[in-house]
């Protein structure tokens, strides 16, 4: 359908400086280069040459997978055993095959195989997803020349270096191409490089003049040429090469190169020849391997592992020294153990025996560093991630995308974030501009409020209700004025018939009513500037008969739509020159006008003396717009004399065709000459539409104590506008721009930071600076390929999904569809996951210390021989079945407070960044608890079952009885402990705790029923020996209570006298005080915000402070405007 | 069609997937804290008292005889005494019954400093061989008591069996012998399943090394109850094992004459041997510790309960008092 226009509009008459074609004779000499770095030769249209050496280049098939079928096993295994813990377990498993092991090999090898298998399965799955993603790209179709001027569609992966391809509008380039010709006669095409640099504006590429005739399929029948150029490299903005065609050599530069993953726009088709394919292409060269990230807790866990490993080595050393002494000095006297030929128990060489025993001991006490900890954490995180994925509140109806935890490693890190670094376009904003307000001849038009005004107004309305009590008298007489601004224009009512890009509402200008306005002539001029001063291309939609506009930037689109709505439809570009910010036009009366549109500061500098009549009013409006977060531009014009114009135009024409670096300078100077003595017309305010819920989300995040940085490639003005729009900035804040030194020192103390004009690389660098400089957890959020570096660099990378490019999501750890979901992701899931994982790890260490140390104590009573008091199967099942499920349920289901309360009390989030639940005090507390528990379990049991009969039938306890009784006590103690640790019991927790204890008995009975071949000493032990013995049951009760007593006393004391926030809130909820005392509840909710200086709540607070100040001064007149826009305080 | 696809990605709502399952959220209110401590205290102290009184009813006679049963001439070198097969090892002990002992009275031997729980010792047995006559060659773990010099498998093999305790006791009172019933001292599961009724000792105690007791080759293992009891290795280096049962009551202040055949060598490793006569009750033998521990824990709980009551009285905190929220406690900047 667009073809029709294209046919009529063969020449792309829009020139920006970048694409001005220098005249023919100015062609530079071909680049002179030889040697390394410039070895690539491409035989255009002869891909056959590139199928064999020496010109064989890599195919266009891309693969980002880590493994293939053959390499998977060795590589994945290698990856697994790079983790020190796994290596330790492997070693232990290997040693279990030798006679030094105290356990049977299967009990060591089975869990290791399970863990490694699980991790490898996960790895394989991820790899498969990558492969599918790659194949989706590889199977994209492109039109390729197969000879004799015939073009056919082929998948991207079949494209080869040297192929001539034809790319159609809105398609991606399959490889790095040399641009030969386009549907425009003058060899221009527009590309969108969103995926490369995140910029949404279009870039112009131009082909060499010499290849212009190659503009239809048949022309390629005999096309032969050679390209000599640089080797593949990651630099997106440079290219050096020579093009040899018709025995002539032409130099190539980046403007002839179409990069893979950029998109053809506004151009029907282009022809190009493949230079770099597949992994040689610049975008693939740019791809960085995503680093593997580990959460803070995991890193801290490593330290705990070191502590425990030290403990392990220590007790193993004690054990082996003890063993050596016993073996050396006492064993010769133990006639019942005659000298051993095997070296393990050799009294003549106690040192050697001791050394061998060290290994035995290390394996025996290996329970201190349980392999199951890693399995459980992995499992818990996967389940947590599942909950994140399935959270219906993070599902975006519009794009149909749920939240996605792409890695499950970082769930708990979400609860510890200190600084959020956010991209702007696509993340905070929709990249859609809405024309909202304008000021013409000093009169403001446009009734709608910007989103930030609405959000602030509603917040203020809520707050004023709360503040009523404090200021009942003073505020009453001024209530009406407040009402004035807190009742926003209803915008939902008419939203459905609103035009995209146009939210303007003011009957004075609409439907031709402007003609009746006092300054109709100026309004007309304003509309002319609106309609003409731009570089957009109109396109007739033949179905509806209306024009759509393909603009370089969305603001221009908004202007054109606005102009059309006002009745100034822009249909066709006639001869005109656009330079910098002005356009020179001739109106129907022959009057030559210079229409100018630009940043207010620049325009105001260039106003003539008599052009300043509206300056004061306009500046005031501009400030208002700016504070409301709108993008502003000032409009001005100048009437030109014909003579002045023609003189200037001659010079301009000359300058345009001049060569070299001077050209730009000359053009700049010429623009300055003509853009002066302007007459101000007015200003526009365009709303850079924020994504849904962004101001509210930022407000909540700020209240949760998070610092928010915005990193944007935009220019400063835009960045500041959006800062206001998101309530990151408010009036009264000082803006500091130029700081090279101590940037970080300053920035970390700032409530919010906005970095503008940052390149993708700088985004990553800033992120690294924050991460390393503050040592705190950073989260980067972005949507585009330009955010990939930042996303990979930050501790947590969040990608916005549901947009076109997938690069950000592919690089991210979490993907959400909207920025606003970040609140729930952090404040709810982050908070929960942090506490869950922290408690879970603490408990896990507790339980394994409690269990593992009993083995050590028992050692001391067996002459340090390495004998375990428990059956092998008890030990195997301890971590697998008998104690793992409740702790997993703790890790998956625990909630200190419900999700609503998390959101209502964002201050609770601070428990994570302050790391209140995983500090050394707590960790050592838990370890101490484990030590205590182990002592109680062991010694109470040993003394109770010491030597006398334990039953009425006179039998004494043997090792199996003591071991089983002791083990039962451990099971009870640790399962009671976890019940005390939990605060949230659904049927699942009840069931799993009950199940764990029940499973122990079921196992004991079943195992005891097996033939003694399998059950050995445990045969019938429960039924026959233990269950009829009351002392067995009494010892369980005693030990379980004694083990948990100190913890119970501790938490009771802490809760009573040092309650934490969640304790108090739990109590309020428990006693339903929130229902009984709504006022208190609301008051606490509003107080629960962190002292924050950003977010619209803070802005409202600032306003209210200001308002109070005014009220207290009892100023007689209080204009509504003064309330809305307080002067900086 | 597209709409359908979009919907398919929408997470389905369930209370489980939204983590909204109904939950019991108990909190430790002062009431709960005090109540639980009081309950534990109130429960434990009576249990402790009952256990203590039960333990008190148990009458136990312990007689250490390893030193006294060595003739004075050998007291410097008891090993040469015990290893000399020609010296008569009988030794008479007289035990005084402190309180009336009601049948059944259990006779134990107690060994101290004997590492029956040593890994090397524990592993040195073949369960298969004990159970199954066909498996007599299964002596893998039994070194050095696996085979005789002419490579015949020893049944039962291994150090445990080989070191079988071989002191014997004969009791009599007022000149009348007391029968010690040696039947039924082993666990049923051992005699019925673990030790085969068709497995007979073979080549036992015939090697160069002299161990403990010898076994009657005509009696199947399942009836060798002394061996079976011995083979249940003890958890600690000091242990008691059942020797037999007496089915008559012993009156208070009665003297029991014990004729001890002091064969077992504890002198080499500095161990002690004791003869124990004990009655039992529902908690087993004499076990004051259990009662004391219960009373201690119960007492601690009461103490804790009182402390908490005092704390709540003197420093009360209204539950759910918002003034304890962190933002109300910190001075506002």
UniProtKB/TrEMBL annotation, chain A:
<dbReference type="InterPro" id="IPR006539">
    <property type="entry name" value="P-type_ATPase_IV"/>
</dbReference>
<feature type="binding site">
    <location>
        <position position="597"/>
    </location>
    <ligand>
        <name>ATP</name>
    </ligand>
</feature>
<feature type="domain" description="P-type ATPase C-terminal">
    <location>
        <begin position="809"/>
        <end position="1059"/>
    </location>
</feature>
<feature type="transmembrane region" description="Helical">
    <location>
        <begin position="304"/>
        <end position="325"/>
    </location>
</feature>
<dbReference type="Pfam" id="PF13246">
    <property type="entry name" value="Cation_ATPase"/>
</dbReference>
<dbReference type="Pfam" id="PF16212">
    <property type="entry name" value="PhoLip_ATPase_C"/>
</dbReference>
<feature type="binding site">
    <location>
        <position position="714"/>
    </location>
    <ligand>
        <name>ATP</name>
    </ligand>
</feature>
<dbReference type="GO" id="GO:0016887">
    <property type="term" value="F:ATP hydrolysis activity"/>
</dbReference>
<dbReference type="InterPro" id="IPR023214">
    <property type="entry name" value="HAD_sf"/>
</dbReference>
<protein>
    <recommendedName>
        <fullName>Phospholipid-transporting ATPase</fullName>
        <ecNumber>7.6.2.1</ecNumber>
    </recommendedName>
</protein>
<feature type="binding site">
    <location>
        <position position="783"/>
    </location>
    <ligand>
        <name>Mg(2+)</name>
    </ligand>
</feature>
<dbReference type="GO" id="GO:0005524">
    <property type="term" value="F:ATP binding"/>
</dbReference>
<keyword id="KW-0460">Magnesium</keyword>
<feature type="transmembrane region" description="Helical">
    <location>
        <begin position="108"/>
        <end position="125"/>
    </location>
</feature>
<keyword id="KW-0479">Metal-binding</keyword>
<keyword id="KW-1278">Translocase</keyword>
<feature type="active site" description="4-aspartylphosphate intermediate">
    <location>
        <position position="423"/>
    </location>
</feature>
<feature type="binding site">
    <location>
        <position position="556"/>
    </location>
    <ligand>
        <name>ATP</name>
    </ligand>
</feature>
<feature type="transmembrane region" description="Helical">
    <location>
        <begin position="844"/>
        <end position="861"/>
    </location>
</feature>
<dbReference type="InterPro" id="IPR001757">
    <property type="entry name" value="P_typ_ATPase"/>
</dbReference>
<dbReference type="InterPro" id="IPR032631">
    <property type="entry name" value="P-type_ATPase_N"/>
</dbReference>
<feature type="binding site">
    <location>
        <position position="425"/>
    </location>
    <ligand>
        <name>ATP</name>
    </ligand>
</feature>
TrEMBL record, chain B:
<dbReference type="InterPro" id="IPR005045">
    <property type="entry name" value="CDC50/LEM3_fam"/>
</dbReference>
<dbReference type="GO" id="GO:0005886">
    <property type="term" value="C:plasma membrane"/>
</dbReference>
<dbReference type="GO" id="GO:0005794">
    <property type="term" value="C:Golgi apparatus"/>
</dbReference>
<dbReference type="Pfam" id="PF03381">
    <property type="entry name" value="CDC50"/>
</dbReference>
<keyword id="KW-1133">Transmembrane helix</keyword>
<protein>
    <recommendedName>
        <fullName>ALA-interacting subunit</fullName>
    </recommendedName>
</protein>
<keyword id="KW-0812">Transmembrane</keyword>
<comment type="similarity">
    <text>Belongs to the CDC50/LEM3 family.</text>
</comment>
<dbReference type="GO" id="GO:0005783">
    <property type="term" value="C:endoplasmic reticulum"/>
</dbReference>
<keyword id="KW-0472">Membrane</keyword>
<feature type="transmembrane region" description="Helical">
    <location>
        <begin position="289"/>
        <end position="314"/>
    </location>
</feature>
<feature type="transmembrane region" description="Helical">
    <location>
        <begin position="32"/>
        <end position="54"/>
    </location>
</feature>
């Amino acid at each position: 359908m667009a073809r029709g226009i294209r046919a009529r509009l063969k020449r792309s008459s829009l020139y920006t400086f970048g694409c001005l074609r220098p005249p023919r004779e100015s062609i530079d000499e071909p680049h002179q280069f030889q040697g390394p770095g410039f070895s690539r030769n491409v035989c255009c249209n002869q891909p056959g040459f590139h199928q064999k050496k020496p010109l064989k280049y890599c195919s266009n098939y891309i693969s980002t997978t880590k493994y293939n079928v053959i390499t998977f096993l060795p590589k994945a295994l290698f990856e697994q055993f790079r983790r020190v813990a796994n290596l330790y377990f492997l070693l232990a498993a290997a040693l279990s095959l030798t006679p030094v092991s105290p356990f049977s090999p299967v009990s060591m090898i089975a869990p290791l195989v399970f863990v490694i298998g699980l991790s490898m399965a996960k790895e394989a799955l991820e790899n498969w997803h990558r492969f599918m993603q790659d194949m989706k790209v590889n199977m994209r179709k492109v039109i390729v020349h197969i000879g004799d001027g015939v073009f056919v569609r082929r998948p991207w992966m079949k494209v080869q270096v040297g192929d001539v391809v034809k790319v159609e509008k809105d398609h991606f380039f399959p490889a790095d191409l040399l641009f030969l010709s386009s549907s425009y006669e003058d060899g221009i095409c527009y590309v969108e490089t969103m995926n490369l640099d995140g910029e949404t504006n279009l870039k112009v590429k131009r082909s060499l003049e010499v290849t212009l005739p190659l503009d239809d399929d048949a022309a390629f029948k005999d096309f032969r040429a050679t390209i000599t150029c640089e080797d593949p490299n990651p630099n997106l903005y440079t290219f050096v090469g020579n093009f040899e065609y018709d025995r002539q050599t032409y130099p190539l530069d980046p403007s002839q190169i179409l990069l893979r993953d950029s998109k053809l726009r506004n151009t029907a088709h282009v022809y190009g020849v493949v230079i770099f394919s597949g992994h040689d292409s610049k975008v693939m060269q740019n791809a960085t391997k995503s680093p593997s990230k580990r959460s803070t807790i995991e890193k801290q866990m490593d330290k705990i592992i070191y502590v425990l490993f030290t403990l392990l080595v220590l007790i193993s050393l004690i054990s082996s020294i003890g063993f050596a002494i016993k073996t050396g000095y006492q064993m010769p006297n133990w006639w019942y153990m005659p000298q051993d030929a095997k070296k393990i128990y050799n009294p003549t060489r106690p040192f050697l025996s001791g050394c061998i025993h060290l290994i035995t001991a290390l394996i025996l006490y290996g329970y201190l560093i349980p392999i199951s900890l890693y399995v459980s954490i992995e499992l818990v995180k996967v389940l947590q991630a599942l909950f994140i994925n399935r959270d219906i509140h993070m599902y975006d109806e519009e794009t149909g995308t749920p939240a996605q935890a792409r890695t499950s490693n970082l769930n708990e890190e979400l609860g510890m974030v200190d600084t959020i670094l956010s991209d702007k376009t696509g993340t905070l904003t929709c990249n859609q501009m809405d024309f909202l307000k304008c000021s013409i001849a000093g009169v403001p038009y446009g009734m709608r409020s910007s989103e930030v005004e609405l959000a602030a107004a509603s917040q203020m309305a809520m707050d004023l209700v709360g503040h009523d009590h404090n200021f009942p008298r003073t505020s009453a007489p001024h209530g009406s004025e407040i009402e004035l601004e807190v009742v926003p224009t209803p915008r939902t009512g008419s939203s459905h018939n609103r035009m995209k890009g146009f939210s303007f509402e003011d009957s004075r200008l609409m439907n031709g009513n402007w003609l009746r306005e006092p300054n109709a002539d100026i309004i007309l001029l304003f509309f002319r500037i609106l309609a003409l001063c731009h570089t957009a291309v109109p396109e007739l939609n033949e179905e509806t008969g209306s024009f759509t506009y393909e603009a370089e930037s969305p603001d221009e689109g908004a202007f054109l739509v606005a102009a059309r709505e006002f009745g100034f439809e822009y249909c066709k570009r006639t001869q005109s020159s656009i330079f910098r910010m002005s356009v020179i036009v001739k109106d129907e009366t022959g009057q030559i006008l210079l229409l100018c549109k630009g940043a207010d500061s620049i325009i105001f500098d260039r106003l003539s003396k008599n052009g300043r009549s509206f300056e004061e009013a306009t500046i005031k409006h501009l400030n208002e717009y700016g504070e409301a977060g709108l993008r502003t531009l000032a409009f001005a014009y100048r009437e030109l004399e014909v003579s002045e114009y023609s003189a200037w135009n001659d010079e301009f024409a000359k300058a345009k065709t001049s060569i070299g670096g001077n050209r730009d300078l000359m053009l700049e100077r010429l623009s300055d000459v003509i853009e002066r003595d302007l007459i101000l017309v007015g200003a526009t305010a365009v709303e850079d539409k924020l994504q849904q819920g962004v101001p509210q989300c930022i407000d909540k995040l700020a209240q949760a104590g998070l610092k928010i940085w915005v990193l944007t490639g935009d220019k400063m003005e835009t960045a500041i506008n959006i800062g206001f729009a998101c309530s990151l900035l408010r009036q009264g804040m000082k803006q500091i721009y130029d700081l090279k030194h101590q940037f970080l020192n300053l920035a970390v103390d700032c409530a919010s930071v906005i970095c503008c004009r940052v390149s993708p690389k700088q985004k990553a660098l800033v992120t690294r600076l924050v991460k390393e400089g503050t040592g705190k957890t950073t989260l980067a959020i972005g949507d585009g390929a330009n955010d990939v570096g930042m996303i990979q660099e930050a501790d947590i990378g969040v990608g916005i999904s549901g947009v076109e490019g997938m690069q950000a999501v592919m690089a991210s750890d979490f993907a959400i569809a909207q920025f606003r979901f970040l609140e729930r992701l952090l404040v709810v899931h982050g908070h929960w996951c942090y506490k869950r994982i922290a408690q879970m790890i603490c408990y896990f260490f507790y339980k394994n210390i409690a269990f593992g140390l009993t083995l050590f104590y028992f050692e001391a009573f067996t002459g340090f021989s390495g004998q375990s008091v428990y059956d092998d199967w008890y030990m195997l099942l301890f971590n697998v079945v008998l104690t793992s499920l409740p702790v997993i349920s703790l890790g998956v289901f625990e909630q200190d407070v419900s999700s609503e309360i998390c959101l209502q009390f964002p201050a609770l989030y601070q428990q994570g960044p302050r790391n209140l639940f995983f500090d050394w005090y707590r960790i050592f507390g838990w370890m101490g608890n484990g030590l205590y528990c182990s002592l109680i379990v062991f010694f109470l049991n040993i003394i109770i079952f010491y030597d006398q009969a334990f039953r009425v039938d006179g039998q004494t306890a043997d090792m199996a009885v003591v071991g089983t009784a002791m083990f039962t006590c451990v099971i009870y103690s640790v399962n009671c402990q976890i019940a005390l640790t939990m605060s949230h019991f659904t049927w699942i927790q009840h069931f799993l705790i009950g199940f764990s204890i029940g499973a122990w008995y079921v196992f004991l009975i079943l195992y005891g029923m097996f033939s003694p071949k399998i059950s050995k000493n445990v045969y019938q032990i429960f039924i026959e020996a233990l269950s009829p013995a009351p002392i067995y049951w009494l010892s369980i009760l005693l030990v379980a209570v004694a083990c948990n007593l100190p913890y119970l006393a501790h938490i009771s004391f802490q809760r009573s006298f040092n309650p934490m926030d969640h304790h108090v809130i739990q109590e309020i909820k428990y006693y339903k005080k929130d229902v009984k005392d709504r006022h208190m509840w609301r008051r606490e909710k509003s107080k629960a915000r962190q002292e924050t200086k950003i977010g619209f709540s803070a802005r409202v607070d600032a306003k209210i402070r200001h308002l109070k100040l005014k009220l207290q001064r009892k100023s007689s007149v209080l204009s509504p405007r003064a309330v809305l826009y307080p002067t900086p305080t | 069609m597209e709409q359908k696809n979009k919907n398919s990605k929408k997470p389905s709502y369930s209370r489980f997937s939204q983590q909204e399952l109904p939950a019991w959220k108990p909190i430790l209110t002062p009431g709960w804290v005090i109540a639980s401590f009081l309950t534990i205290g109130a429960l434990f102290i009576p249990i402790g008292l009952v256990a203590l009184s039960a333990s008190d009813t148990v009458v136990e006679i312990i007689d250490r005889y390893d030193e006294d049963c060595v003739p004075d001439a050998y007291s410097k070198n008891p090993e040469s005494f015990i290893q000399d097969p020609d010296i008569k090892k009988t030794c008479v002990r007289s035990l005084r019954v402190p309180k009336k002992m009601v049948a059944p009275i259990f006779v134990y031997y107690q060994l101290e400093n004997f590492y029956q729980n040593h890994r090397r010792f524990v592993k040195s047995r073949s369960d298969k061989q004990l159970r199954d006559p066909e498996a007599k060659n299964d002596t893998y773990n039994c070194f050095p008591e696996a085979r005789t010099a002419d490579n015949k498998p020893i049944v039962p093999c291994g150090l445990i069996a080989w070191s079988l305790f071989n002191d014997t006791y004969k009791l009599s009172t007022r000149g009348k012998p007391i029968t010690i019933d040696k039947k039924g001292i082993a666990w049923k599961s051992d005699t019925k399943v673990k030790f085969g009724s068709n497995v007979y000792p073979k080549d036992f105690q015939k090697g160069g090394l002299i161990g403990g007791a010898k076994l009657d080759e005509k009696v199947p293992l399942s009836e060798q109850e002394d061996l079976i009891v011995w083979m249940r290795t003890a958890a600690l280096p000091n242990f008691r094992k059942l020797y037999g049962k007496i089915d008559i009551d012993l009156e208070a202040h009665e003297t029991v004459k014990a004729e001890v055949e002091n064969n077992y060598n504890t002198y080499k490793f500095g161990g002690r041997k004791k003869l124990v006569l004990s009655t039992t009750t529902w908690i087993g033998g004499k076990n004051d510790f259990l009662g004391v521990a219960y009373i201690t824990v119960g007492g601690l709980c009461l103490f804790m309960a009182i402390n908490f009551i005092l704390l709540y009285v003197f420093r009360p905190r209204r539950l759910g008092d918002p003034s304890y929220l962190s933002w109300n406690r910190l001075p506002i900047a």
